Automatic annotation (TrEMBL):
GO MF annotation terms: endonuclease activity; nucleic acid binding; zinc ion binding
Keyword Kinase found: no
Family (UniProt): Belongs to the Rv1128c/1148c/1588c/1702c/1945/3466 family.
Protein name: Endonuclease
Species of origin: Modestobacter caceresii
Coiled coil, from the record: none
Domain of life: Bacteria
Keyword field: Endonuclease, Hydrolase, Nuclease
Amino acid sequence: MSELMSALDALAAEELHGLTDGGVLERVAELVAVQNRIAAELTRTVRRADAMQAAEHDGLKSMRSWLTGHTRLAASDASRILRSGRALEHFPALSAGFAEGSVTAAQMDVVASAVGEPERARAAEQGVDLAAFDRVWAQVAAESPHQSLVAAVQAFEDALDPDGPEPDPTEGRRLSIAKHADGSITGRFDLDAVGGEKVQAAIESIVQANRPKGDERTRARQNADALVQLCDNQLASGDLPILRTVKPHVVVGIDLDDLIDPVTGPGAASTGFGATISAARARWVACDASVSRIVMGPDGVPLDLGRDHRVVTPGLRKAVERRDEACVFAGCGAPSWWCDVHHLIHWLHGGETSLGNSALLCERHHTKVHHGFRVERDPGGRWRTWRPDGTEILIGPLLH
């Protein structure tokens, strides 16, 4: 092991700037092979430790908990290594490719996660030659793109059950959400083919309906905006199940002084699910919201609770929708049911909650207006949009 560490130290000390294009690519390929071999040896060693119940030596009940606690691996990575380790002895050709560096840890897990003990038992019962599949998988893994191995493993599943599984799409569905320190979230979901088609159809409908002129968002950003808009639409409809005695909604808590102060105020507000946001972001939410006043005592106990006050009444919203019909930001036109009612002069700063002080803006452009852009309705009733630098965004014939 000390020799391996010395070799890695020597690699890290090598100068890379003098390498040619071909030379640096060759180095990358060689390092991937080395990484695969190290991953294979780690997997083999963890398997041995798992079989010996070695984690008990440090007072832990499993190698999974030892790996997450002692080596700080993510739980998903620890599970993947253990799963692959248990599969090594059943797939000698694939394991040999792994040890030689031609098979990646991810490829090994494709097989290990799909062909566990129950699947191997069914293969034995049905006379399916697992060794033949193993040889094919090893060749595909070494010579073809990653997705080709996924398809090859699916062929094994089809061989076990040529009629396909019973149509219960919920069994394989998963959605995980991780919250980060700044309140942002990262998510991952796995859906069956039909469920995935429904999600794609819903998101695609919103993406294609909201393609304003000059839109430079990546497709990934368009999809993310569409997902948020989809949730906005559903929350606004009022048809979601009741959550803890109230309709589900976005909750933001902020001190009155921070809300009124025009500065950004980072970290001044908190949301119902525990995220921390800036005062500026809270003011953006408060533009079209219900506001409740809670007077707190010095010991943190609420002393007085005022009734909810809807900033934009249902009647006013209907009037704004009737007048504007869609997002008024130049070049947008997102439908009214995607839009908030924006106060041209914020009610916090004395702006009236009135038709004349209101504008329909979709989430994206509502955010833009709270970050330097400006919309205004001229005496002729035409909405105009200005950039933060004071130049007007002109659309269509006005450009000529």
